[in-house]
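User: two proteins, same treatment. go.

Assistant:
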Amino acid sequence: MNSPRFPATPEEYCSRGMDHLEKGNYRDAIDDFTQAIKLRPDIAAGYRFRAMAHAELGNVPRAIADLDQAIRLKPDDLQALLNRGTFFLRQKQYEDALADCNKALTIDDARADLIALRGRVNEARGASELADADFSKAIELDPGHASEYLVWRGDLRLKSDDLDGAISDFDRALLINDGNVYALSRRASAHWANHDLDGALRDFSKAVDIDTDWVWVRNGRGLVLHDLKQYDAALKDFDKALELDHGHGPTYEYRFETLHKLGRKEDALHALNEAIKRNPESPRLFNRRAMMHYFNREFPKAVRDHTAALKCDPMNATTFNYLAWVWSTAPDPTVRNGRRALECATRACELTEWQTPGFVDTLAAAHAEVGNFAEAEKWSERASELAEDEKSRRDYSSRAEQYRNRTPLRVNPADMEE
């Protein structure tokens, strides 16, 4: 686009602003669109294009404010409504986004991009059936852009556990564009969820070949390799992912699990420490480190990390159960605390409505620790009734017999599976 070097009119400022916008000179674009608006306050295009520049710089609220003005001046501007709906979606203002989509579709009910946007809004609102119908309609109306809409519908179906439907959509998207890395990565995820590890590995590997610097696909392939027990190969992918983004917390967690499987306990603990530094509000990570301490017989450290996990999520039944287990069964008498064990075990069972056999088993151990052997026997028998496999049922029944003999439970971590 050719534009005057020294603009004099609002239109000329808009023209030069568009040049800046296309070249990625967003601040210069904002300056030109602002000058156009000063010269002509009713120039709707100036507001609309300035909104795009603000959005590119990450200032979505300013972009929405500009689009408010553009739409006030030109209420039937479909592109402005589409853009504002997109920004409302980004800001999680779902009802506002839906209103913009519906308003625009009363003007043109065959605009596939608007229907697809409404599908994304409906998905975000939890209206999965409406979202699926919108994506399907957009695919039908605009086959030329079907690849993008198929990926969105595939994502929706993957989240809804319709794995075959998701794979079918990603297949169709990749027939249109076999270099679509995102579609490859999502099909890989669908194969993985469908327990087709070989298919997942093929897709993640192709995605890595196309985009060697995308941390997500590096980690995805590493996780599949981990599940295939190819731990050395998995570790290479995680190491490469950290080269690409040294601050990526999940990569440290993935690396920890693989190092742990390789028996490199010290390196694994270091990786887990790094993961916790980057995500200090994760009860899962604190509980995982606590389990490492537990199996190293470092019981006070295990209690400390389980307690930190509980501070992150005070309603986490699993964490209550972990604490109760350590306090009631640890072989070190200086660690055991029957009263607190009983409080935590009871809370874990309350939170899970007394239906989790492992938690009920821990409650029995806690009762035994404080000398309530009749209660311990009763809850062990209940755990046996709830057990989902024969081995667990035998274990719980044998403990009921132990409590009948008035013997509390002591567990050596070395005798347990880590």
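Protein 2:
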Amino acid sequence: MADSAILPDGGHPNPSTHPHREMSTMTYSVIDEAPYGKFHRKLVLLSSGGPFLDGYILGNIGVVIVGIQNQLHLTSTELGIVGAAALIGLFIGGLGFGRLTDVIGRKLMYTVDLAALLVGSILCLFVQEGWQLIALRLILGIAIGADYPIATAMLSEWLPRKERGRCMGLLMAWWFIGASAAYIVGYLFVQALGDDAWRWVLASAAVPALLIMIARHGTPESPRWLISNGHREQARVNIASALGREPSERELDLLAEQETPTGMNFWSSFKKPYGKRTLFVTLFWTFQIIPLFALYTFGPTILAAFDMSEDSVLGSLLISLVFLIGLVPAIKLIDRVGRRPLIIWSFALMIIPLTVLGLAPYAAAPIVIACFCLYALFSGGPSILEWAYPTELFPTEIRGTAVGIATSASRIGAAVGTYLLPIGLDHLGLGTTMLLGAGITFAGLIVCIAWAPETKGRSLQESSGLGKLKPRAVDSAAY
């Protein structure tokens, strides 16, 4: 028998005293126990489009930041704002559209947000002044921030429980694929066009945005959201279409019991028991991406500070690829050793290379590259859990809201870090800046040791603390 859900403070929720819903023991739903098939693989790929564009759009600015500064004559302060603008947009998009996707559903926003990415990317071709670029990066960030809660909620609510950790981890893999693609495309454009390449590099994101938007058309709405909003028959149709068989009345009854509306709203994310969960997800995500986003946005600038300016773009591409490689063992381990050991050990190991860089800022180039690669490798665990944890720790009614809140808060921290990084390099020096990154990572380790829960193998109802399991599954013979 599977264990009941565990709260971030290590305790087990008591259904009889739960402030929102009383539930007896329950069985796994038709979605939880569905065989992983063609529909799931397609949905994973389509949902990965958002992370791909996120990595691509946040990564391409770093490749051409020198050309932008030269042509638009930006000060170091303006340069920091350009780097941080998309992250500020992520705050707005996650906070606003996270709640909206819980209210109106996942399906509509699943496509609409990509239209904004498409238009915003094309308009980068016509930028003439710094404020125009800042405005467009802000708009692109809003659209990216919107896709986080939309795509993650849609995907997690369709996935079988035993595949959820692996598949949510694959979303993060596509973030790094997008970032790597941005460096490759950017490098080729810069080699061909020089400083004039930056407009075309930024506008190139319109191509994958258009393809993904077309491919996402027709994706069925989440049956969990439909059931929780009184659309039982449409949920039946969507389940039958996606999973290849008609759900029984008993299965729909169980899903309806699990997704019974309780009137939770935006503020429920800050109330017991979800307040601590919101704080945990927000803090570990923030402490993870402040150094990571700074390294990505200003990777070439940092490597140039290590006297590697001639190879800065290629060096950044190598680091980006190692970030991607680091996800492979993390994806394999997330459902094997569990979420809690994975995130704690990852944070602990990430501190080491940043500390070395801080204590030896003038080390030889191979040591610098090795440290950056080790950091990228060890960051795989927290990176995939940025996507898995928020979707697992909150119920359907506030899942998009909670993911949006965590996305927004973490991106504000990342925006501050990205804005301050070039200023820190100028005024504090390279070694001190790297040591600050190690200190921020250490704070993330403390948060994870204190609050990281274990949700391995649990249904969304269990992991969100809404009930306990019986030792059998519903109509398992039907499969």
